[in-house]
Protein 1
Amino acid sequence: GDSVTQMEGPVTLSEEAFLTINCTYTATGYPSLFWYVQYPGEGLQLLLKATKADDKGSNKGFEATYRKETTSFHLEKGSVQVSDSAVYFCALSEPSGSEKLVFGKGTKLTVNP
Amino acid sequence: NAGVTQTPKFRILKIGQSMTLQCTQDMNHNYMYWYRQDPGMGLKLIYYSVGAGITDKGEVPNGYNVSRSTTEDFPLRLELAAPSQTSVYFCASRGGRGTYGYTFGSGTRLTVV
């Protein structure tokens, strides 16, 4: 079945450091790919998405490119801030009757001032 | 817009008790989902619904039941609560095909003792 593998956390960075969180996927078809962010005590929020190969999703300085050849969707940000501290989830959705999301296990990011 | 509203936010149950987690959305979304989130394990799909009157099992449905009598409401019923059901539960919704990204509720933290 479909699955998503994220790099293990936690990740601790200093403010203004470069961030990469790796994400690879296994899917039978052509999924849409997502990054969700969860701030402490809150639900998940959509951060960015890509719906086809070579698409780049971007939002709030974060970027991820849908790489079909490597089945990857790595999240990057050039300069993190303390406010970026959260748990980040990579997810995929196959075009199907349910269009349900399959999540990775999440990566906790802590940014220190 | 209220989005997706979940109640209660917190609950402690004794083993063997039952309860219903409420979920309501005001976006006229057809698709609704229940996930549970366990530490370090990402989110697992419990049940989902593609429209009023239609429900189906997800990855971890045992010990739970759902109903979808209206578009707005998607309650999750726990019968005979067990410690293994201690988790954070998230309800989510999305629009029809071609729309992307779920809207999540803020979650219900359930402890079974």
Note: Chain B touches chain A at residues 4, 31, 33, 35, 40-43, 45, 48, 50, 56, 58, 90, 92, 94, 97, 100-102, 104-107 (CB under 8 Å).
Protein 2
Amino acid sequence: EIVLTQSPGTLSLSPGERATLSCRASESVSSSYLAWYQQKPGQAPRLLISGTSNRATGIPDRFSGDGSGTDFTLTISRLEPEDFAVYYCQQYGSSQYSFGQGTKLEIK
Amino acid sequence: QMQLQESGPGLVKPSETLSLTCTVSGGPISGSRHYWGWIRQAPGKGLEWIGNMYYSGTTYYNPSLKSRVTISVDTSRNHFSLRLSSLTAADAAVYFCVTTWPSIHAFDFWGQGTTVIVSS
């Protein structure tokens, strides 16, 4: 099973700042199958990015993804108030899926 | 736009079997190349993939739950289901039904989630 470790656990930033979230895999992940989700309290997660860097429909371009192998990054270029939430990375391989433990992005 | 809606009992007794249904609207399950699946989230915790059923009928389950899980599809009712047996308190969670497009293996559509409490 591929284990995904996200860092930091909590990120405290102000609106307008840049956020960089990390997702590290215990073994190499296909870049085609690395995704990111945003979850707000009481809501289902929402797909932000698939295939490492492809934004889902309706996702603003301030969200971007990058990476390869075992290291992947989600960047939010300029934080808006609605961006403060929990973010999860997710991978697929060998017919199995797994998630990272999440990064909470909170207002400083 | 596909929409998913979970339904099922909110309270289940320990050792019993949980049965949840996900009703799909916005398109027929029959003939769709989506994968149909379930994810859960224990209170205050992260996301745990439970399993997927492929359009071919093949199922894949999380190894940690495999012995207790069954996912099935009913095309006549345009819904798919989850059965999880031998429940314990550790199975208490919000259960989400989801779809996956095979080319991306990411969960593109989600139900709103249904809360399951395990208690006698």
Note: The interface with chain B takes residues 1, 32-33, 35, 37, 43-47, 50-51, 54, 56, 88, 90, 92, 95-102 of chain A (CB under 8 Å).
Protein 3
Amino acid sequence: DAKTTQPPSMDCAEGRAANLPCNHSTISGNEYVYWYRQIHSQGPQYIIHGLKNNETNEMASLIITEDRKSSTLILPHATLRDTAVYYCIVRANFGNEKLTFGTGTRLTIIP
Amino acid sequence: NAGVTQTPKFQVLKTGQSMTLQCAQDMNHNSMYWYRQDPGMGLRLIYYSASEGTTDKGEVPNGYNVSRLNKREFSLRLESAAPSQTSVYFCASSERGRRTGELFFGEGSRLTVL
């Protein structure tokens, strides 16, 4: 699986959009970008994933650059409950059962 | 629908003792996983099972054994616990195919080895 690079921490004001970047310059054609978050010491929670098109669901939007070397997770209206560690993960969806977590970005939402 | 259930939630062991962490899922998922998370670190994969009857090593398998008892249950055993195994252990499950990467995690089992 390709390696990802994320900033260790970020702050965002409550009510504003939180934009979390991720670099994955060695991503290959069959690898997807996944985002998870971990609130306090709970188990990680799946947020969203995509291959090359932008994706949106009820939790967030995922913007993947045209060359697929980087992506941004967008939380459109951040709330205090969005304070968490966010993990960006790259993996192939078939023939590979492993999901490898890095150290992620600690996002703090400020009142 | 409880999702992924882990037991016990907390455990304290002495060095050399053995124990088994239990995990069960009720989502009819084929794949199951055991991760550990040390303070301030990301999750590291210990073992995984792509289907009933199969298991494979992850990043940090040493000191652990696993059993995929049936489709629902995946247990993690520490035969001789060491202080280095003090950690939070997470079990997870996922479907196969298109949604393989969407893991559902349990609440974690916090293990302290003295």
Note: Chain B has a mean pLDDT of 92.
